[in-house]
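Now for a chain:

_____
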Amino acid sequence: MPTAPPPAPADGLRAAAVAVLNLSGLGLGYAFMRRWLLMLVCWAATAVLLFVVLPADPDGVSGGTLALYGLFLLLAAAHGAYVGLRTRLVWPTSSPLAILLGVVLLALPAASGVLYESARQEAIEKMLLDRLDDADGLVEKASGQSFGTAEPKYRKALNAYQGLTADHPDSRAAEKIPARLKTFYTTVGAPYEEKNYCEAVEPLEFLRTVPRTVSKKELGSLATWPDDRLATSLYECGSYGLNGNDDANWSTMFNNLLDTFPKSDQAAKVEPAVKAVVDDAVKDVGGDDPCAAVDSLKSLSTQVQGLGGAEAGIDKALDDDASRADSAASTGVYACGVDQYKDGDFEEAVTSMNDFVAAHKSHKNAPRAKKIAIAAEVAQEIPAAGKRLPTTRSGGSISVTVKNDSPEDITVMYTGPVTGSFKLKGCGSCTTYSWSSTLLTNFKPCNDNKKYPQKTISLPTGTTYFVHKPKSGSTSTPATDTAKLSSGYIYTECAYMTSGYGANS
């Protein structure tokens, strides 16, 4: 028995009906003509398409795939029309009815396309939400790290948020961005909430740059969220350093504050804070460590001079603070020198007292500073001479004559009950003694046969320490002598030089 209906007269409507039925992708035109193999080919082609396009991908179906499947449907329709021209339909027998059924079935691929597009849009939404989750993960991971380490993650997350807003403004992910930005700001600015003000400065400065990436319209109130927090952090961090915790950084913080927020309440507090620290340092000059106070005042003066403040209206007050610190440091050198002398730092004491006298010749402490500088020089050679601070006392009842039996000019310095110094010219007719001659029992420098450069001074009874210091640039060694002076005697000091061993007395 034949497997297909016998040939029928040509029928154009029937051919059209088969073509339209095949366009549904199910091969129904072939099915109604009992061409089962051809129907299965259509099913296979549609199945392959479904396998390729499902599940729906955000990128959709490639144009090549759709073009290839569309070409297949056109071929199936054309071939079906060719076969159906002379082949009767098993059902429906009416060609117009078959055409109507084919047209109705065309809604199936159309509906499939709509459903597919809906699934594709959902896939896009899921992809965008995944991007949002990834950005959130970066922020969460960065929150436990230092800002230097976390910054690249913060920037990457911020770019992701901006991309979602700009490229997909109507997406569900974009609707969540405002809340995510708020979380972003609070996460980056967390050190401020923890009162770690120095750590908060850099992340808050970073947040002030966010409007360059995200529009102010999107940010809303977040655009100015960091401002007051940054001003507070700059002030608090600067104050922390100003009070001795980070000397190298406080002026940078205050300058940043004065430049960025000159009219802020925080900027107005800078000068009072500086003034208070200068006041404390001035008081410290009279404390246990005047040298440290002087160093602090010098540093303060330099750094305060480097502060701005013109826009904040505090520049003149800051200038006054700097001048006061500089003046207190300069006069405080005397107290520092006294402290150095008491501590046995005689070389430092000499420098301090000489600096003080050079800067304050008319100061009430200048005469004693000169005495202390002399005594400190003597004490460098004879440590016992530095046990007591010298006074400004002068004169005494005992006559002491110092002669210079050496060819070099010398400075004679002495300290004890009284302190002083004077210079003696070199003896033009004198020579340097050999070291061996000084060991002879008849060695007598400063004998009465020559007229030596000399000076007679009056000293009190007690122990006086002498140092005979060669002129500057000499290679001779200073000579020392400790004289215990008693009433009723006349004393003579003699300065001379020995070869190889420097000056002696």
Remarks:
- The beta strands are 398-405, 410-415, 420-424, 454-459, 462-470, 479-485, 491-498, 502-504.
- Confidence is low (pLDDT under 50) at residues 501-505.
